[in-house]
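pasting for ref. prot 1 ->
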Amino acid sequence: MTTLVHGTDTLTRDALTVLQPGFVGTTAPDWLLRRIGEGLSSVGLFGRNIVSPEQLTALTAQLRAERDDVLVAIDEEGGDVTRLEVKQGSSFPGNYALGSVDDVELTRAVARELGRRLAACGVDLNWAPSADVNSNAENPVIGVRSFGPDPDLVARHTVAYVDGLQGVGVAACTKHFPGHGDTNVDSHDALPRIDVDLATLHARELVPFRAAVAAGTKAVMSAHILLSALDPHRPATLSPQILTGLLRQELGFEGLIVTDGMEMQAVAATYGIERGSVLAIAAGADAICVGGGLCDEDTVLQLRDALVTAVRTGELPEERLADAAARVRALAAWTQAHRARGAESVSGAAVQEGTAPGTDIGLVAARRALKVTRGKQPHTPVSSAPYVASFTPVANFAVGDETPWGIAAELERLLPGTETGSYADSSVDALLAAAGERRIVAVVRDVHRHAWMTEALDALVAARPDTVVVEMGLNEAEPRGALHIATHGAARVCGRAAAEAVVGTGA
C-alpha cells in the first residue's frame, strides 16, 4: 500500500466522499470509523454484515455515531437478491414475480414495505430496483431480477418501486444503466456487449430509465457493459458519452450516478480498480461502489490516493471530483432529512423472521404471482410427505450461494417427514431410488438454459408421470409434470406459495 496524501484537506475529503466501500464483520471496524471521520460519506452493506434487524440497527447507529449524515447503502432487491435475509431467503418476491402480476399498486406496496424495513434499521440508500428489460432469455445474471421483457411493463413497475422506496425516505438507485437485459455474459466475470442500433436502445433499454428519471429516482447505477452504438471503446461505467452525454444531458438526470462494483471483471480485468475508478469519475460517475469482493482498508486508501493523484496530475479535473462529492453530500442531506421526519413513524418496524408486523404483503404478492398448469396426467394434491428433487444450477454472483431456495423447507412444515436431495446432472437413477414410493416434487431454476436439467426432467416425468414440477426461475420452457407451478422467482415466500399449491391449500 502506498499512501500519497495526508491530513484531511478538501481534495482528500472529496476523494473519500465519492467512495462506497464495504467491510467484513457485523460491527464497524476501527479503520472504517476512522475514515468516516476523515470524510468517507458512504458505506455499503452485504449479507456478511447482517444477522438480524436488531444487529443491523445497532451497526447503522454505530456508523452514525461517527457521523450523522453517512449514507448507508445496501443491495436489497428482494426476491433472489437479498442481504437482509441472506440466510433465510427473502420475505418479498422479486421483480419478475411482481411484473408477472402486473399490478403497479402491489409493486409499490411491496417496495414501500421493504423500504420501511430498511429505514427502521437505519439503511437509507438501496441499490435497487433493477430496471433492465430482460429481452434475452439466456441472460445469466439478470433473469428474474427484471420485471420482464416488455419495456413499458418494466417502466411502470420501476416507477412504482422507486415511489415505494422513496416514499419512506430510502433513496432508490435504479440500475443497471443503460440496460443489462440483452446480454448473455455476466459482467462479474467478463465484459458483455450489446450490439444493437440506437433506435433499438431508445425503444427498449432506455424506456424504463427515462421513466425512473422522470419519477425522481435519487440515484442511478451504471452497468459494466459495452454498447457499441453509444461507445464502441469503453463500458458504460467509464464512458463520458453514456454517463454525461446520455444520462445527464439527454435524459436530464441530476441525481447521484453510482458505479456497479468496480472489482467486477468487466472493468477490473482490463483497467484495474484504481484506473477504472478515475475513468469512471471523469466520465461522470459520482460514487464508486466497491466492497462486494474487495472490502478492506487498503482498497479504500488505494482508490482515494488514485483519485487524488489523478487530480494533481491533471488527468481528472478537480471540479469534476468536487461536483461528484457535492452530489453525494446532497443525497446524504436528503436521506438525513427524511430520517429526522420519519424516525417516529418507522420506529419499531424492525421485524422478526421476515414479514413486518401487521402486513404479509410479500406472501400476498408471491401467491398472486403463481402460475399453475395442470398436465395431461390426472393430478391429486400431495397429501403425504414427498421427495423433493432440487436440480441445482450454479448461482450467479449477484444472488450468491448463501441464500437458500426451493420449497423443501416449506413442504416439511406442511408435510412433516418430507425428504430432499440435490442433483446437478442428467441422470435420474439415483433420484428415483432415493424417492422410492414417495410422490416426487421436482424443483428447477431456468430449465430452458440448462440442457442437462431439461434431459433430467424429461426422464423423470417419463418415469414418474405424477411428478409435480416447480419452476423458480424464468418460466420459458413448456410446462411438464402432472402439475406445473411457476413461481417467477426463488424467494422464500415464493417457495411457501408453491408449497401451498402442491398440497392444495393455496390461498
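and prot 2 ->
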Amino acid sequence: MSPTFLAATTDKNLELVLRVLPAIVIILAASAVCGRLALWVKQPRVLGEMVAGVLLGPTLFGALFPEAQKAVFTPEVKPILYVLSTLGLTLFMFLVGVGLDRTAGNGRKDTKNASVLALSGIVPSLLLGAATGYLLHDRLSKPDVSSFQFALFLGGALSITAFPMLARILYERGLENSPLGRMTLLGASVDDAAAWCFLAVLSAMHTGAGLPHALRTIGLTVVFTVVMLTVVARLLRPMGERVERTGLFGFDQMYLVVGIVLLSGYFTDWIGIYSVFGGFVAGLAMPRNEAFRQALHSRMMDLVCVLFLPVFFTFSGLNTELGGVTGWAMIGPFLLILLSGFTGKYIGCALAMRGIGFTWRESWAVGALMNARGLMILIFINIGLAQGMINKDVFSMLVLVAVLTTAGAVPLYRLALPERIERRMSPAEGTVDKEVSSSASTGAGSVHA
C-alpha cells in the first residue's frame, strides 16, 4: 500500500470527520432549543426534538438557507447519520425493554389486557384508514397503485403508535412501571410490531415478492421473540444474579450486553421488521434484577437520549417536506385522513381500556397516548414513498397527521388525568384512589370537567 494512497485515504477520512461533527453540533443545538421550548409550552421534550428534526430538513432550514443546508447535510454525511440514528433508536428501545418491570402485578393479566389494547388500537384505525383510502384513491393515489393496496397502506400508516415517543412520555412522568404505563407500553409494542409485519406483507404485494416471503418474515419474528424471552433470558440470569450479589457491573458484562443488542437489531433488520424491535426484545430478555437494571440505565440512558436520539429525529426530518398540502383542494382529504386516524386510536383504545376495568379518566388518558404517532409513522411512510406506494402529497399529509396527533397527546392526557389526580396514582396499584375512581367512573363527561 503506497504512502500516497494512505495519505489520500487519511485526507478523505479527516474531511468526512470535519463534515460530520458540525452537523452533529447543529443537531444537538437545535434539539436543545426546541426541547426547551416544548417544555415551556407544556409539551414533552421529545416533541420538541421531533420538530427540531423536521425544521432542520427542507421544511425550514432547507427553504430559507438551501445552500447552507446542503453544505451541512451533504450526501456523505447522511449515511453516517443514518447509522447513528439506527443505533441510537435501537439502544433506547433496549433500555425501555430493560426498564419495563414484567414481574410486577399480574403478568398474565397484563399481557392479555395489553393484547386487547393493541387490537383496539390497530383494528379501528386500520378499517377507518382503509375506508378513507378507498374514497380518496382516485384523487390521491399514484396511477399504478391499486385501490386495494392504497387503502391498506393508508390504514396501516394510521394504525402506527409512536412507541419510542410514548415511552419517553411515560418515563418523563414516572409512569413506566405503573400498570397503566406497562400495559400501554406492551400494547404499543404489539401494535407497532403488527404494523411492521403488515408493511412487510404490503411490500411483498407491491414488489411482487409474494406472500411466502411475508409469512417467512412474520414466522421468523415469532421465533426470534420466543427464543430471546426463553433461552437467552435463562442464559443471562446468572449474570444478573452476580451483579445483584456483588454490586459490580464491569466492562465484560457491558460488552456482552451491547453485543446482544446489536445482534438482535441486526437480525430483526435482516428479516424486515426494523432494528427497534430487536432492541426492545433484547431489553425484555435481560435479567430483571434491580441492581442490574439500574446499572444499565445509569451508564447508557443519558448518552442515548442526548446524542443518539436527536440524530434519529433529524435524519427522519431530512426526508420530510411539508409541501404537499397546498391549496384548498387538499384540505378536505387531509381533514378526512386526520379524523380517521384520530378517531380510530382515541375512541378505540379508550373504550377497550374502559372494558378492561380502568376508569374513564385513565381510559381517555391511554387513548390520548396511543394516538401519538411521532416519527414511527414517518419511517413507515418513507418506506412507502421509496417503494412508490404513495406520492409526495399523501406523504406530506401523513407527516402533518403525525405532528398534530403527537402534539395533541399530552394535552388530551392532561385533560383526562390532571396533575392533582395523577399524583395520587400509585405505581404499585396503578390506579387512582377510591374517591377519584368513583368520581371518574360516572361517565365520559367527567373527563372534560
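The two ends are 75 Å apart (CA to CA).
The chain has 19 helices and no strands.
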